Amino acid sequence: MNRSLQAAASSADRGWRCCTAPRWRSAPCAARELECKHEWAAHINHGQKTGIPLETIRAVYEKKGAENFSTEEAQIVSFVREMIHSHRVSEPTFQAIYGRFGEKGMVELTATIGYYAMLACTLNTFDVYTATPPEDLKI
Predict the structure, then answer these.
(1) pTM reported for the whole predicted model
(2) Which CATH code of 1.25.40.10, 2.40.128.280, 1.20.1290.10, 3.40.710.10 fits the domain covering 19-133?
(3) What CA–CA distance (Å, rounded) separates 1 from 3?
(4) Which of 20, 47, 44, 5 is nearest to 108 (CA)?
């Protein structure tokens, strides 16, 4: 598979029209990996309202391994963690996400994680947090 920059740029330029579920599921994971208090609290509260099981939220909070998630959740968690920690993804992770979401969805998921990483850097620098998570899920 050719990971072409042209394909990524053209997909990103078409706007954010992919399914929002992967994006909403990637946000709390990115926030937790980057220890962003505000985004973590905001997204776990919203995530529960949109159907992310509390068990999944707790596993993300505790930074449990991919084997502790459903196959679908593990794909997103692995993708987020690999991007944040190694700034790249492994071929198996790339293939899993590409196979599941296609080129456009993968570009949008990647951009979403990058967006939350940028927000986390800004919010963490100024120690901003206005949302409050449940006591047992605080960072």
Answers:
(1) 0.83
(2) 1.20.1290.10
(3) 6
(4) 20
